[in-house]
Design goal:
acetate-CoA ligase activity; nucleotide-binding; acetate--CoA ligase; alpha/beta; GMP Synthetase, Chain A, domain 3; AMP-bd_C; acetylation; about 30% helix
Length: about 600
């Protein structure tokens, strides 16, 4: 195996031609590159080979034979570098108070909770569920689980109690950690409703006391971390799992390996937030993403902590300008991790005024949707020093980390672009016939080789995983995204190639919502169309009722309540249009183009002929 000369401690090249040479170098010497990245972390047992992969099965296993503890790499390893008193976790509460934990204090909390897990019988290989918002208890719980080799399952606070309970049961989690009811979209008695569906599971409450349920403090009260040994998980041991779809009694999702995910999250965060910048390097990162996505785990937890960067969390459903101003004034050079809707919300509140501070974010990283150029321009004028400081991250729950992204330097960023393939990762653009697309020709985004953070399928869904992602382009992983690349190698998003709609950062299949709607006694037919909102997609429903509707608004309210109950309030449509018939071709196919024009306000259903 040919050796390569690559200093991973050096800054990344700022010039486009030099960067493209480096990227090619990491692809030509992929195994050596990822082995070098892995050796930057602390391994309990060295890996014997870098990767074994076969997309015909499909199978990919990284850092075979190695043993690594993620929590030790995020805490103990960083403390040894002299950062024991540096802020690791800062929490801005609704009350206006701020809680801060240093790396030493975070480690002490993690070990005490890990001791409580151990004391109550949890062992490596067990699973716990975290139905928590952005709060310190989530970070502490995830780290404590990883310290013992326990797999954790983040469950979104936007989901209704029935779905939370189903996720817990499907994952076989032995413990559920929740917050008080105000943390959830389904606020009323959420915790009690989940508890009623899970009477055989232990439930912890992270903050206020609930009758019959122990709090975090009570659970840890008698725990003694002295003598507690860290687990030695194999590199492919599950670190965490994320459910994405819940169809036909199958919980479809992704299970992320400890070694591969930690290596790639560490490397990716370092490249984007540290090595791309010569100065003005962030010391903290503000995470505003929901905890239930892989992107949050990569860039709001494991990536920053394993690089010695502190995390800032905000206890607000709607983040306000004054909170942003406080953080910029009080914290040491914080970067911002967000979805485009946050920039749009800040623009709506702030208007043409400037922030009441001279400080700016050194980097704003957006994921969920590509940040449109108009919002980049606004962020440049109000939030960062230069449009290149706003970077896009292309992350799916099936990718784990950003496989495409831009960098916060002028030549390696363009407003609206997805950026380049990550170092050591080779994206391809294929036509529907399996041929490589030429420059500026739109096609299917695929990957012919695996990457370290690549997940496996959740229990019982291996065939679904294979059919969904590996059947259309044999030997390649299919992302269902349409992209093109320009002459300089920048990738540009051209649209989804399936029925997926992204709402508030959550991916929803239109067929899922349509199936729920047609089960309602008032609905005969229903079609979902995505409409363009201020910062992303909105859901628009066209509905044909089973019988004549006397009061349309009452009917609409009933349908919205039904969707909130069955899927979650985040999936409630922005608009429901009731019609006696849907526009169709003579062969019975829907005129979706007409519906999209109606949803956009460019036509009416009466104009369909």
């Amino acid at each position: 195996m040919e050796s390569i000369d690559l200093d991973l401690n050096q800054k990344l090249p700022a010039r486009l031609d030099a960067f493209r040479r480096l990227h090619r170098h990491t692809l030509d010497h992929r195994e050596q590159f990822w082995a070098a990245q892995a050796k930057r972390l602390q391994w309990q047992t060295a890996f014997s080979c870098v990767v074994k992969e076969d997309f015909s099965k499909p199978m990919a296993s990284w850092f075979c034979g190695g043993q690594i503890n993620a929590a030790q790499n995020a805490l103990h390893r960083i403390i040894k570098t002299g950062k024991e008193e540096a802020p690791a976790l800062v929490f801005y509460q609704k009350s206006g108070e701020t809680d801060t934990l240093t790396f030493n204090e975070l480690k002490d909390n993690v070990l005490k909770l890990a001791a409580a897990f151990h004391q109550t019988g949890l062992v490596p290989g067990d699973r716990i569920a975290l139905n928590l918002p952005n709060c310190p208890e989530f970070i502490v719980s995830a780290l404590a689980a990883a310290y013992l080799g326990i797999t954790y399952l983040p469950i979104g606070c936007h989901l209704p109690p029935s779905t939370v309970a189903e996720d817990v049961i499907a994952s076989k989690a032995k413990l559920v950690i929740m917050a008080n009811s105000s943390a959830y979209e389904e606020k009323k008695d959420h915790v009690l409703n989940v508890r009623a569906l899970l009477d055989d599971r232990t439930i912890l409450i992270s903050d206020e006391k609930r009758e019959g349920l122990p709090t975090f403090e009570e659970y840890m009260a008698k725990a003694d971390p002295s003598g507690l040994e860290p687990a030695c998980p194999q590199a492919d041991h599950p670190l965490f799992a994320v459910y994405e779809n819940r169809l036909a009694d199958k919980h479809v999702g992704s299970v992320f390996p400890t070694g591969g995910f930690l290596v790639q999250a560490h490397a990716s965060f370092d490249d984007i937030f540290n090595k791309a910048l010569v100065q003005d390097i962030p010391q903290m990162i503000v995470n505003t993403l929901d905890m239930c996505s892989a992107s949050t785990q990569a860039y709001g937890l494991w990536g920053p902590l394993s690089n010695g960067t502190g995390i800032i969390l905000i206890d607000e459903e709607d983040i306000r300008v004054n909170t942003i101003e406080r953080i910029l004034n009080e914290q040491p050079n914080p970067a911002l991790l967000c979805r485009p809707n946050l920039i749009s919300d800040l623009r709506e509140e702030l208007g043409q005024e400037q922030l009441n501070t001279a400080r700016r974010f050194p980097v704003i990283a957006c994921c969920g949707n590509a940040l449109p150029p108009r919002l980049v321009t606004y962020a440049d004028a109000r939030l960062v020093n230069g449009p290149e400081r706003v970077v896009n991250l292309w992350v799916q729950n099936k990718s784990g980390t950003a496989l495409l992204h831009s960098y916060p330097t002028p030549e390696l960023n363009r407003p609206g672009a997805l950026g380049f393939g990550a170092l050591g990762v080779a994206p391809l653009i294929m036509s529907d016939f399996g041929e490589p697309c030429k420059t500026n020709i739109s096609g299917n985004l695929v990957f012919a080789r695996s990457w370290p953070a690549m997940p496996t399928a959740t229990m019982g869904t291996t065939e679904h995983f294979k059919k969904t992602y590996f059947s259309k382009f044999p030997g390649c992983f299919f992302t269902y995204d349409g992209v093109r690349s320009d002459k300089d190698g920048f990738f540009w998003f051209m649209g989804r190639l399936d029925d997926s709609i992204k709402v508030k950062g959550q991916s929803l299949g239109a067929s899922l919502i349509e199936g729920v709607l047609t089960a309602h006694p008032l609905v005969d037919e229903a079609v979902i169309i995505s409409g363009q909102g201020n910062s992303g997609e909105d859901i628009v429903v066209f509905m044909v009722p089973r019988k004549t509707i006397q009061d349309e608004q009452t009917c609409i309210n009933q349908i919205k309540d039904y969707i909130a109950e069955k899927i979650g309030r985040f999936a409630v449509p922005e608009k429901i249009i009731i019609t006696d018939q849907l526009p169709k071709t003579p062969t019975g196919k829907l005129f979706r183009s007409v519906l999209r024009r109606v949803a956009a306000g460019e036509a009416t259903l009466d104009e369909r002929k």
